[in-house]
Amino acid sequence: MDVRACVVIRAQRLPQRRVRGVTPLAILLLAFAVFQIVIRVWLRLRPQAIPFGWSWLLENPWRKSYRDPERVAEQCGIRPTDTVLEIGCGSGLFTRSLATRCAKLIAHDIEPRYVAQTKAKLSDLSNIEYLVGDARDLGLDSVADVIVLISVLPEIPEPLLALEACKRALKPGGRIVIGEELFEPEYVTSRQIDAYARAVGLEVVGREGNAWAYLHTFALKS
Length: 222
Prior knowledge:
23% strand, globular, Rossmann fold, single chain, disordered N terminus, 2 domains, seven-stranded mixed β-sheet, 7 strands
């Protein structure tokens, strides 16, 4: 066979080999990107709490590496005499770290099975009260020095109503701590959280973290 013909044939085959090697990865990445876009848009339009049984997602080691419960509790600035209200305790990832820093903790969730799971997990702690209910209608007045919402607010269909309920539950001089992380499908930026807070008469008094995982502290406007 002519040498030039061999070169032409090899040149024609090389791109095919390259495409065959890259295409599966490209397809996988594209599928993942499309899934992320679809699920995030869906949950933005139809906010909902994370289903029961997804503790593996809430408590996976990778998440704990950047959302360490002890570090989060420390950033909340809890005092030993405080009463803390944790909205959306879920499987209790942060509950123990919060409870060991305060006089009393109220662990709340809309899913009764999550509350039961957390209660069983933390049966050795006697300063925790458990509450099942909708965050938009807590039915609490002036009970908490600190209210903590970690990866919860965007899951609530009407976040402003939830913040209004939290305001009513605050004691005078109390604080609301809100944290979000890019890992969660319902993620919203810190600017959006700040806007929600301003809309209900709260102001930022503390900021921790970055765009990947942040924690903002709010108080009533003075």
